[in-house]
Specification:
206 residues, single chain, alpha+beta
Length: 206
Amino acid sequence: MTHEDIAGRETKVLTRSSVMVCAAAALALAGCSSGDDGKASEPTDETVVTATVSGTPPSPAAPSLSPSSSSSGASASPSASVPASASPTPVPVTGPDQKLVTMTVSGGFAGVNREVILRGDGTVRTTDSGESAVRRTTTAQFTTLRTLLGDPALADVPAFAIDMGSADKFQYTLQFDGRTVMTDRSADEPALDRLIGALEKWLPTN
């Protein structure tokens, strides 16, 4: 046997050994990826749990600041900044002879001339066609008349509000709080109308 024959046999042996090793490796890989029935193995519960536990939980979001904590320098509430509407308060009395209000009624078809005076002692003096009378108010009536006089809306009433085109209307002249107001009630002045209506009730009925 020649040297070449010996070398050829050794080469064949090595080639067969390599083929057997590769086949064994392939079978080993197939066994790892397949179950006993040849199907692909499914992940077990243990695998799922392991994946869940090993997952990194998301970092919690930073808490947002509440409006109260982020607006420490905010201005006061609207209710505190808006002034409340003034409510009427009874005008003060300085003495029993004080004339709180004097109202004169004139004009009309018959040309009347009547007067009402409210004094600080709670009396009401009326004059009608030259005849005078004095009556005393109750505490509640006196407070009501003084409260009507203390209505802040009276400050906005014009001094003269008479419709010159209507000569047959009654004309009212009121003196109170150091001012004189003349009106025929043709203009819409609720505060003044309430005061006139309350004083007219003290005039004698004809």
